[in-house]
Amino acid sequence: MVLTAHGLTLALRDTPFGPLVAPQTGELRPLELILNQAATGDFPELADALARGTEAGTPYYLIRRPDPRDDVAAARERWRERTGGELGDDAYVLAVDFYDERPMIPRAVLRDLLDELRRRRADAPKPPGPWLFRPDPMADEPAPGEGEWLRQLEREAAELDALDAVAAAPVATAEAIVTTLVQRRNLLVELDAAGILIDGFAEQKAAWLDRWGLVVLATYARAAEALHRYFRSAERRQYVPGAGPERILGATVSIDWFRRRQPAPVGVTPFAWCAHAERELRDAGTLDGGIGGIFSRVGSEWWLVHWRRDDGKTPAVASAARERPTPNGPLG
Fold it and tell me: Is CB count within 10 Å lower at the N or C end of the chain?
């Protein structure tokens, strides 16, 4: 399987979503990367730039017109040897930061290669969905109709938020609290199965959820991205030695800590505050019940750190509230 235009032939490789340019060597490596990025939607500016004859790029690669730095005569000779044709005066330099090669390619060749590659990918049979909202995403965009089955999940997430408000009231019954804990666990299991809690593709998932009007699920996607960054943070390692990436379901920090955007004490960064609360929870020893609170002194203030068992088993810090002042100094 190959792609050919104006005497230039590139081998292709098959993928679940259609062909892409196979790994190339030498000065064709930038061409491989740029064509594949454009064909998969990661460099959408390329097609428009080629149509207008303008330049385009990203922080890592670009197509530009030749300038005095370029050895155009040598590029013409290499193109003639490779294809038997002429480079012409309407050409682009392909530059990729991490490649030394800077090939010069005629605009017509780039345009025809990209058009044919996109056509073949559009015609290729696609795997059944879901593509994006799954534990192991296959693509950075959803399958047709993928948003429809998420609407029930959106309703469940909105219902849980309403139950949370009831369970948080001072007169909340034990039944309301237990019901909320059970429904939260069930929702988080479903969110995990839908890939909303995984580490990766957060920007794409949140953007599609916004587009579909699934506003509550979008808050979970953005909070999951923040929580995964916290798991990997230096602030967390200062308080929780050996800490690193982990799954959200079963963690000692609730996704709601970031979804509800907890206030932090003055002079304490959000990640350091979360790590301090997590450390307090880990040092608290055996905890009884499904929910509870731990008093923590931070500077001249007392804070009440609320915890609950999001997965039905593991205590996780969920929120914090300022209580009363104390006489001492920095974060304890």
Answer: N
Core vs surface per residue 234-259: b (16+ CB within 10 A) or e: ebbeebbeebeeeebbebbbbbbbbb
First to last CA, the chain: 64
Q: State how far Cα 257 lies from the chain centre.
A: 19
Q: Which of 71, 85, 104 is nearest to 6 (CA)?
A: 85
pTM of the model: 0.77
pLDDT tens-digit series, residues 300-318: 889 999 999 999 999 999 9
State which amino acid sits at residue 264.
A
CB within 8 Å of 174: residues ≥ 6 apart: none
